Amino acid sequence: xxxxxxxxxxxxxxxxxxxxxxxxxxxxxxxxxxxxxxxxxxxxxxxxxxxxxxxxxxxxxxxxxxxxxxxxxxxxxxxxxxxxxxxxxxxxxxxxxxxxxxxxxxxxxxxxxxxxxxxxxxxxxxxxxxxxxxxxxxxxxxxxxxxxxxxxxxxxxxxxxxxxx
Length: 165
What we know:
This protein is of the alpha/beta class. The protein has six helices and six strands. Helix content is 34%, strand content 19%. Strand 2, helix 2 and strand 3 (78-79) form a beta-alpha-beta unit. The radius of gyration is 14 Å and the shape is globular.
């Protein structure tokens, strides 16, 4: 079995028009939602063997916060430049290339690619993964190369507004 956790970065700050999109930090809500979602996912039993993330500032901060809440060493996160502004096909290729020794992998990145990836791989339609949202999908295979070519079973779709209720 392989498990994939598709996590969209938390809410970012748009206050400084001088910053590039890549350099935008988390805003107050994002700094609150990221640890809350990490704790919620930990309560669901999410324990990744590998976390790969976009190195864009908001994704990087989100990944570090969430990884820490899941008991994953933030210093062990793999930063993959190609996740930033990735097409769904690029993200699917990334999944195909994941190391088979990692049973449970979290990808932290951006929309619209992540929502499209969740719909390509999962069996539940997702209109939009909101900021700090996560889709968990399980695959009945022991190889990522096979997982990226099949429909998995969507385990959950969690996001801050749902968790607040």
